[in-house]
Design brief:
Low-confidence stretches: none
CATH architecture of the largest domain: Alpha-Beta Barrel
Bound molecules: the ligand O=C(O)CCC(=O)C1=CC=C[C@@H](O)[C@@H]1C(=O)O, magnesium ion
Structural class: alpha/beta
Mean pLDDT: 97
Order of helices and strands: HEEEHEEHEHEHEHEHHEHHEHEHH
Largest sheet: 7 strands, parallel
Distance between the termini: 9 Å
Helix content: 25-40%
Number of domains: 2
CATH class of the largest domain: Alpha Beta
């Protein structure tokens, strides 16, 4: 943490647990839970995925505390170009899901979902290309392939003129290997590192080893705006800001991060508010024609009341905050 940690009891006393229903299942999630913290600077979001342990989740808590207690950095831009995100839906649902986004110029398509085939991925990407011939397309495999499958799948998918492929296989050396094999087969497709950045003890190792062409950076999973701005400044690769499937409160922090980066060469993955069926405010942070406004978000009391998941879930989150706070004190 690059600022003093507020007292644990103060954080808990100003926190609200919410559970948001999703429109479309995303990474297996249909109900997204978050603990929101109201602080002197505004609201922060702590929404580490439920299965994450205290070590990993503590970085998300640091980000939430930063958003609640520190001002956002000076913005260099007032709106952020964003991509639409298409979950790994069956081909017949592609049009219906993408219709929810207002005139997207860039679309990220999930591929390599467990239980699905490369043919299904190909059909999903082909349908997206058919419906949006002018859009920039990228895919995200979330480490779902092994190296030979990734090389074969990406060779076929590269026919659709992709901007890049995000984390086709696990690990840093895995990414480097896929990238090298594609290059030697003269397949011109950029590789982006996501999990190899946010789940690694050293987020800059990908860059140092030249294992990818791009780095995905996320405000919550990497510990907050200042930490991520430092990482981006040291990285020798282009960076792409993406969401952590946050409510509008977390999206506001991610947009503030994107607004403060000196260079923003790629659309950011911050249109995920569209995947939710409800949000913490009547004015959720949603994109218009592929641009997201940069602004703070204040949850509304009637939304906090409506989206409260009950005492048991609240107690679970409070315990989690205690565990993660203890980690932050140790680090
Ligand atoms: O980048 C985007 O378009 C949307 C965000 C997104 O894809 C993700 C959000 C949250 C969890 C991750 O599994 C996932 C990702 O892998 O980038
Ligand atoms: Mg990803």
């Amino acid at each position: 943490m690059n600022f003093p940690l507020p007292a644990l009891e103060e954080i808990l006393a100003h926190s609200h647990v919410v559970q948001l229903p999703m429109q479309v299942k995303f990474r297996g999630v249909t109900q997204r839970e978050a603990l929101l913290i109201e602080g002197p600077a505004g609201w922060g979001e702590f929404s580490a995925f439920l299965e994450y342990g205290p070590q990993e989740a503590s970085r998300w808590l640091a980000a939430a505390i930063e958003a609640a207690y520190q001002p956002f950095p000076q913005p260099l831009r007032t709106s952020i170009p964003v991509n639409a995100t298409l979950p790994a839906v069956p081909v017949g649902e592609v049009g219906r899901v993408l219709e929810r986004y207002d005139a997207p110029h860039t679309i990220k398509i999930k591929v390599a979902e467990q239980g699905q085939s490369v043919d299904e991925d190909l059909a999903r990407v082909a349908e997206t290309r058919r419906l949006y011939p002018q859009a920039a397309l990228r895919v995200d495999a979330n480490m779902g392939w092994d190296i030979p499958t990734a090389v074969a799948a990406l060779t076929r998918l590269s026919d659709f003129d992709l901007q890049y492929a995000e984390q086709p296989v696990p690990g840093i050396t895995g990414l480097a290997e896929v990238r090298a094999r594609l290059r030697s087969a003269r397949i011109d497709l950029k590789i982006a590192a996501d999990e190899a950045v946010r789940k690694h003890t050293d987020p800059l190792e990908v860059s140092r080893l030249g294992a990818a062409d791009l780095m995905i950076i996320k405000a919550q999973p990497l510990g907050g705006i200042q930490t991520v701005l430092d990482i981006a400044a040291q990285a020798e690769l282009d960076v792409v800001v993406s969401s952590a499937l946050d409510t509008s409160v977390g999206l506001a922090q991610a947009a503030a991060l994107a607004s403060a980066l000196p260079e923003l060469p790629y659309a950011c993955g911050l249109s995920t508010g569209t995947l939710f069926a409800d949000d913490v405010t009547d004015e959720p942070l949603l994109a218009t024609a592929g641009y997201l406004p940069v602004r703070r978000v204040k949850p509304q009391p009637h939304k906090l009341a409506k989206l409260h998941p009950g005492q048991e879930r609240e107690a679970w989150w409070h315990l989690r905050v205690r565990d993660c706070y203890a980690q932050l004190l140790e680090n």
